[in-house]
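About this split. The held-out portion is used to measure sequence recovery: a designer receives only the structure tokens and must propose an amino acid at every position. Recovery is the fraction of positions where the proposal matches the reference. Here is one held-out target exactly as it appears in the evaluation file.
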């Protein structure tokens, strides 16, 4: 369980005191109905006991259900949870209809149409089928008028009618939220491994992606082999890593040099027989300083610690432009150093994502400046028209 990636969803119940918020929540999380319950004061949080996993078997959803107080004097405590809500459930019973108040309460805090919304009618065991259908139609009309795109569900917390359906709706909306967020916050990270023939580039990629190694099982790469792996983060985002495995012979350069412009991370791979890296061809295409770079001495298992240290020293002496970047001792065969390599890739990735976010913020800032500038340019003409109107002039449209 500890290796599973968990995404969190906040589901908030809103409604008047006594409409049955707590009773419904108890039913959703598998607790028995109680005839008499003390009114909720402040906030109470509950969690779904089970996790609903997405397509990736190693990821899942934990749904927080927040029970709020219906009494108006406590409503200030609800504002924070409404702001953080992913799903909002407006609840009424057979008597109390105060949706208008709660719509305004939420609208004053957030854009309600940015959330998943459910309208819920409780205590259906106390009303006739005719009245239930009448209230249902009223909720449909409100939904159309307010354009909330809400799902409407009728339940009875006392006899559990509709509780399972409500729970399924919450789960379905939670999956939809996470799927949409993952798609929206999907980052593509392109990584290329560069090095001579037989330094172990293909084996390193196999170890990074699949954590496996088979001696002599991977044929030499003659052109460019592209392999991908998707990683889901906990904060509703995902990374699609694309690894470019390139041929080590000089004649293969033409096949992979074209990809360099779109590469985010370069991994230079060496071994005891190939220490020197010629970066001149790469620098004709891109600036090394614009890329995240990692240097790897592979096959460390074939040498003693002293020999590996000597190779690292020689690498720094013969590759002046690369010595400032992280240099890692790894072995694709034994997996030594692979954890550190993956950590360095992940650290670089988070830096890249942050840079991309800042670029977007800057673009949005520039756009806002442009909008302000345009409004300033238009402003004198608007004022002029107003002066003309005061002076009895007319405006042609």
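Reference sequence for scoring:
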């Amino acid at each position: 369980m500890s290796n599973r990636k968990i995404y969190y969803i906040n589901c908030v119940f809103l409604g008047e005191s006594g409409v049955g918020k707590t009773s419904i929540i108890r039913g959703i999380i598998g607790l028995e109905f109680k005839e008499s319950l003390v009114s909720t004061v402040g906030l109470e949080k509950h969690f779904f006991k089970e996790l609903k996993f997405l397509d990736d078997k190693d990821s899942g959803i934990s749904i927080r259900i927040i029970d709020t107080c219906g009494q108006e004097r406590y409503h200030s405590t609800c504002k924070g949870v409404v702001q953080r809500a992913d799903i909002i459930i407006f609840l009424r019973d057979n008597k109390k209809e105060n949706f208008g108040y709660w719509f305004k309460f939420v609208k004053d805090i957030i854009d309600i149409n940015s959330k998943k919304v459910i309208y819920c009618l409780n205590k259906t065991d106390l009303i006739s089928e005719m009245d239930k259908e009448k209230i249902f139609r009223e909720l449909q009309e409100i939904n159309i008028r307010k354009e909330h795109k809400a799902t409407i569900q009728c339940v009875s917390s006392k006899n559990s009618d509709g509780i399972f359906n409500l729970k399924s709706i919450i789960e379905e909306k939670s999956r939809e939220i996470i799927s949409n967020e993952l798609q929206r916050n999907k980052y593509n990270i392109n990584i290329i491994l560069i090095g001579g023939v037989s330094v172990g580039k293909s084996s390193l990629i196999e170890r990074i992606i699949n954590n496996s190694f088979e001696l002599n099982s991977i044929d030499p790469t003659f052109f460019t082999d592209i392999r991908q792996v998707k990683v889901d983060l906990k904060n509703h985002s995902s990374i699609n890593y694309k690894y470019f495995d390139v041929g080590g012979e000089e004649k293969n350069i033409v096949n992979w040099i074209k990809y360099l412009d779109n590469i985010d991370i370069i991994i230079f791979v060496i071994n005891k027989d190939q220490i020197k890296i010629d970066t001149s061809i790469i620098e004709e295409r891109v600036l090394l300083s614009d890329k995240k770079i990692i240097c790897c001495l592979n096959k460390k298992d074939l040498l003693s610690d002293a020999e590996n240290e000597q190779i690292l020293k020689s690498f720094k002496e013969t590759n002046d432009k690369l010595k400032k970047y992280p240099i890692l001792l790894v072995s694709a065969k034994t997996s030594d150093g692979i954890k550190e390599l993956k950590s360095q890739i992940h650290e670089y990735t988070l830096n890249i994502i942050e840079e991309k976010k800042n670029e977007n913020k800057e673009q949005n800032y520039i756009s806002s400046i442009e909008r302000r500038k345009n409004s300033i340019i238009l402003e004198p003409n608007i004022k002029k028209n107003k002066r003309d109107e005061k002076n009895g002039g007319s405006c042609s449209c």
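Annotator remark: The CA atoms of residues 45 and 66 lie 5 Å apart.
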